[in-house]
Amino acid sequence: MSHFERILVVGAHPDDAEFHAGGLMLSQSRRGSRIGILSLTDGSAGHHIQNRKTLASRRRREALAAAALLDAEVNVWNEADGELTTSLRLRKRLLIAIRKFRPDLIVTHRPYDYHPDHRACATLVQDACYLLRVPNIEPDIAALPQDPVVLQMCDFFTRPVPFRADVVVPIDDCFNELVELLACHESQVFEWLPHTMGLEVTGDRLAWLARFYGARPKRIARSHASGVRYAEAFEISEYGRQITAEECSAMLLVS
Fold this sequence. Notes:
8 helices; 7 strands; alpha/beta; about 15% strand; seven-stranded mixed sheet
């Protein structure tokens, strides 16, 4: 297999996949990979004006719009934003979702992130990984024949364990498309995040978003890549199928 044929990005919130792995999804979709996006919560907490019910519906529409640009499958769970836990019920629900999609690559958060939902999401993926191949766990859904590779998305937190950039994906050639993906999540990138950071969205919104969001992949490129302006980085999880960083990079067609 020359590339990952089925990639599932599991995030805690409807925009996490695009924010942390949008370039990977775009680049691999171009190569023929089937992309799945799974949000474990409804995103209903992330606004300073809209109530939960209104925001949940809006964020679902935003997720569908972004997925349409990727030709990706998307599933937004109805779990309450800000209240995600590592319960047995959710572990089983996630196990079933992964088995149904049958990915050979899963991309998710690290368990050391600042957001409790991100940490819970990462732990749920870890806890589900071994059980994916155990037939007597949820026997009505066929167990996977092989463990998927699991990549964890970059964060900048250092305790208890700092991020390790095993795989770096240059995204210069798809950065503008990535900005358009993120713009679909307008409640977040043009309203909620600027509000929390005390920023004002002025002028052309896409140009503003490119500057605002671009600071993150620029920082990753400065730390982990050379000769590129924008990059995403990922850590290979011990909970998935073990391949080397070189093998994973070759599968993603990055050097």
